[in-house]
Amino acid sequence: MTFPWQSRKVTVTGGASFIGSTLVDALLARGATVRVVDDLSSGVMRNIQHVVDDGSVELIQGNLLDPDVSRRAVEGVDTVFHLAADHGGRGYVDLHQYACSTNLGLDAILFKNVVDAGVEQVVYASSGCIYPLYLQADIGETLYLTEDMEKAPGYDPDGLYGLAKVAAELTLRAMHNEFGVKTASARYFTVYGPRGVENHAVIAMIARSFLKQDPFMVWGNGEQIRNWTYVDDIVEGTIRCAEHIEDGTAVNLGTMERVRVLDAVNMVCEMAGYEPAIELQPDMPTGPMNRVADNSLAKSLLGWEPQVLFEEGLRRTFDWYTSTKDIDEVREIFDFMLTERGTPPSKVTASPTSEK
Ligand SMILES: NC(=O)c1ccc[n+]([C@@H]2O[C@H](COP(=O)([O-])OP(=O)(O)OC[C@H]3O[C@@H](n4cnc5c(N)ncnc54)[C@H](O)[C@@H]3O)[C@@H](O)[C@H]2O)c1
To answer: Distance from the CA of 82 to the center of ligand 1, in angstroms?
Structure first.
């Protein structure tokens, strides 16, 4: 039976973000009625302007740490896709632990409102950052993280950002067990694609190549292994979580392609048509050395499989970035964006009405 999206009212928190706005487009295409709740602290209006302007999305611009905004966010909807979070790329989450800790409060307030309002279903944007760091140190190991490794033999999530994701997943399981709310957690692994921002590695690499950076800076020793996963695949998996999971189960959404940072850099430079010197920056944040998902559970539970191989997704993302960005603007924001989120202070002053 096909899922009745056409009769569903949904809220996407963080719906102006890179992944959130792509999810909004996919839900609208399925016929759902969509509300976006976002404070535009890192999400941007341009990602959703088209669907706000044509009236297909209701936008509540507000801070979900405000209990009243949170209450209004979930009022009268069937499904909440919860993506709002204080979050950025590796430079951001490593250097802004306090800010990431506020997600504990944001999630707790939202989930309480879900229970109080009797909302039927919540799908949560979790992360590969919930997995114990001690498992992910050895690049010589062909490791694929399976869902049961979350706490074996002990929790060791990736900072307060990862800890908040663990707490939310556990809360959602409790909400199912104790109140019958249908819940699911989708563990995203290093997502990239159009609308991505420079504080994430792939977009940062593309931005460096766009600026023809030479020497080309690489954080760490470049040997880190990742399974960068294309945004359309992530969105498809997230929607399938709503369609197939009710009991709080968490599933990995990630490819099983193992890509070394230095190999990704070489691919990007080849697309940009130049051969810069590579300068390693071992003191910059790198995250775990070896993080790749096992996606068999998503295959069996959701019938989900990534459709976009890294080389193809990288090409699409490179083409999007280089055809939509202004080189002077990228030069102006780039250093800020490597470790921050939202709008650089210079842009706020220069254009008070510009997107946050
Ligand atoms: N990008 C990735 O690789 C990745 C990997 C794993 C998990 N995730 C998760 O996916 C979700 C979306 O991430 P993203 O990369 O698209 O971009 P993002 O981090 O910009 O998304 C967060 C969104 O939430 C909004 N937001 C933040 N705090 C808010 C608040 N207090 N009130 C209202 N809105 C608020 C932001 O403006 C933004 O639109 C996040 O939950 C993130 O943790 C992303």
So the answer is: 9
